[in-house]
Amino acid sequence: VQNHAVDSEYQSGEPAFDGLVEAWMDSMEALKAAEASGERQFVRSDEPNFLDVPRVTFMAVREHVIF
User: Fold this and answer.
1) Cα dihedral 8→10→12→15 (10° resolution)
2) Which of 3, 5, 8, 61 is most buried (CB neighbours < 10 A)?
3) Residue 18 has pLDDT above 90, yes or no
4) What is the pTM of this model?
C-alpha cells in the first residue's frame, strides 16, 4: 500500500515525508526472506531513481486491531 501525504492538511511547513509504503508479512522470517530475495534486490537497485534513499526509514511493527 502506498500512502501519499496530503500537503493541504499541514498547517505549517512541509510534511516530514512525501508518503509511506506498507507491506504485510506473515512473520519476521517471511520479512527477512523477502528482503533477501532476488526481486527485492532488483527493486533496491532501482530505488535511487524514485526515492531519496538517505532519508528512507524502515520500521517493523506488529499490527494491533482496536475495536
Assistant:
1) -110
2) 5
3) no
4) 0.63
